[in-house]
């Protein structure tokens, strides 16, 4: 049995995101997974996402990956906290970014698989604080801190 990505559980009305929406034919289709106490996604950026330094990813792409993975992570952690599973018959839990701080630590190489991880720092009502990391070849290239807010049903 293959594990479904967090984004694969998004209802059609929330599946159009350029970064992670499965229904966006032009998007990146980032896939995030809840693995015990953290979330994980993998993505290999094409050469068109070059930054000002040759052979490295531009910062906007890095922020985009952290953004999409962070909101998916917030939703997955909220489902788990409430004793629910994604795709159940209850109303969907969706989060949006209220704040995203990104620290660029090392150049991020193009053409290499990137690992994006998320860990829950806190969940208080509709607010989720998620720590994020983006690495290549075991080296952290960017770190992010996100405040995500749950959309009202």
Automatic annotation (TrEMBL):
From which domain of life does this come?
Bacteria
Q: InterPro entries given for it? A: HotDog_dom_sf, Thioestr_dom
Q: Which GO terms describe its molecular function?
A: thiolester hydrolase activity
Gene3D superfamilies in alphabetical order: Hotdog Thioesterase
Against Pfam families, the record matches this protein to: 4HBT
Q: Which residues form the Thioesterase domain?
A: 56-135
Annotated signal peptide: none
Name of the featured protein: PaaI family thioesterase
